[in-house]
Write a structure and sequence with these properties.
It is built from seven helices and seven strands. 42% of the residues lie in helices and 16% in strands. The chain has a single domain, classed as 3-Layer(aba) Sandwich (Rossmann fold). The protein is of the alpha/beta class. β6, α6 and β7 form a beta-alpha-beta unit. It is globular. Its EC number is 3.2.2.n1.
Length: 193
């Protein structure tokens, strides 16, 4: 595993544990020689993980639409900055470059990104591992929501096996490195296998 795409909040959140978690993940990735692919911002949790990797000798590739340069404040010290035209191109480029994905705590943008990679994994568009960095139980409600969709007949039980979750950075990266994707199955219960 050479590159992990990290989705993260462009804000730091109210708990100091979120910033500490971003820094811990950055240290683990740098120590393991894993490059960071991310949205290119210098603020929020996005900036914290990038700063930490750079401080510890890691490589950081940022992908940012030109229209967000001012709002998200592009990081000026990245190893590589890739400029794209829009959010769709940003996500496509990050997907292309990444060997795996991790979601740090974040808001709607982070949720949208993590649900897209989970949905695409479910459909077999990619087979890359996905991790939820469950700091202070942040992603427990999301895991519960997926279980609720399964219990309600809108998702297959295997959907809970499309991702790994941990509140420890080192453990999460190891889980991604040893991830075994569940066998592909027909996602449409109305269609007989």
């Amino acid at each position: 595993m050479k590159r992990i795409c990290v989705f993260a909040g462009s804000n730091s959140g109210v708990s100091p544990a979120y910033v500490q978690a971003a820094e811990n993940l950055g240290k683990v990735m740098a120590k393991s020689g894993i490059e960071l692919i991310y949205g290119g911002s210098k603020i929020g949790l996005m900036g914290k993980i990038a700063d930490t990797l750079l401080r510890h000798g890691g490589n950081v590739i940022g992908v940012m639409p030109k229209g967000l340069f001012r709002g998200e404040m592009v990081h000026a010290e990245l190893t590589i900055l890739i400029e794209v035209d829009d959010m769709h191109q940003r996500k496509a480029k990050m997907m292309e470059l990444a060997d795996a994905f991790i979601a740090l705590p974040g808001g709607l943008g982070t949720f949208e990104e993590i649900f897209e990679v989970l949905s695409w994994s479910q459909l077999g568009i990619h087979t890359k591992p996905v991790g939820l960095y469950n700091i202070e139980g942040f992603y427990t409600p999301l895991s519960n929501l997926i279980q609720h969709a399964i219990d309600s007949g809108f998702a297959r039980p295997s959907n809970q096996s499309l991702y790994v979750m941990s509140d420890d950075a080192d453990e999460l990266v190891k889980k991604l490195q040893h991830f075994e994707r569940p066998p592909a199955e027909n996602k449409w219960s109305d269609l007989k296998d």
